[in-house]
Amino acid sequence: MLSEQSAATVRATLPAVGAALGTITERFYAGLFEAHPELLRDLFNRGNQAAGTQRQALAGSIAAFATHLLDRPGQRPDAMLRRIAHKHASLGVTPEQYGVVHEHLFAAIAEVLGDAVTPEVAAAWDEVYWLMANALIAVERRLREEHGGPTWRAWEVVERVAETTDVATFRLRPADGGPVRDFFAGQYVSVRVTLTDGARQIRQYSLSGAPGPDLRQISVKRVYTAGAPDGDPRRVEAGDVLEMSEPFGDLVLDADSDTPLLLASAGIGVTPMTAMLSHLADSGHRAPVTVVHADRSPATHALRTDHEAYAAKLPDAAVHLWYEQDAPAGTHPGLVDLTGVPLAPGTRAYLCGPLPFMRAVRTQLIAKGVAPADIHYEVFGPDLWLAGQA
Length: 390
Hints:
Blueprint: H1 4-35, H2 37-42, H3 46-51, H4 53-71, H5 78-91, H6 96-113, H7 119-147, E1 153-162, E2 167-174, E3 188-194, E4 200-209, E5 216-221, E6 241-244, E7 261-266, H8 270-283, E8 289-295, H9 304-312, E9 317-323, E10 332-333, E11 348-352, H10 355-367, E12 375-378, H11 384-389
Parallel strand pairs: 7-8, 7-11, 8-9, 9-10, 11-12
Antiparallel strand pairs: 1-2, 1-6, 2-5, 3-4, 3-6, 4-5
């Protein structure tokens, strides 16, 4: 909980700090990477840095956390903290790095705001930072303890399957021959690859299925990023070895077999939903399951066969597909419109896909009576949802 004195100072300065956060985070990352180039080389996603999305996500999370402390002083925004902590744990972020971030973030604040950063203002925002940082450190420590073992492990690609022209599925086995831990459908892994310049870049991919007790499966979409470095393992073939983390992520099914569900995805967001459908089919889920997916065309709908096959195994499932081009009979043309899609009372929804898609679906679900607390989402890359709410 924020102290009373700091709360008053933060409330008074939040508009000014919030308005300058974009510039502050830009200066922060410039200073951080100048002092610690290894972080840009081996930890931070250089594509996200080039696009500016990581700066937007950081600014949004700081503003959202400070606002939450002021509006609900007796609560922590645990959902936001868990989402960030899972990503950090998957990337191998250490407690010591929070001190490094603090040093360069507050140097950037002082540089941008100048004389407005009095000792009182600095102390208040320092309290905000460490409340957030210490909460994340604690959650990340628990996650590491739960998973055990080293952050990174070598995995051999045993099979590569072309799903579409831009998506391939990889099945991997531990190179050390050791056991494979269970995962929750909807979770993701981090994959670390070495680029031609020697940088070891990290990307995160949802587990798209459980092909066997000693295997992991990810489905990777080719990313076209103009002018930005790309670390996707697009040229990986069977026999190659990748470094991969244990599964993390908080977008996991949290419902009994009598809870109605909606699984909505767009594009490569289909990957966690396919894993969820497989789990629901295997576990004998009885309640209605509404499957919603949007794509450019049937040809770009990765994992479509699995998507529909798993849904067909459920006793009460309805599949609704939208395609912007070449929509065949039985599907819908254009963008997702849930107006005519019936939903059972008490439906719990899980969303994954581009941010505009998820925001549109969330708005439609709330209009249909789904409780906001029952709508869960996963963002690939920096979480700009918070930036849009800040």
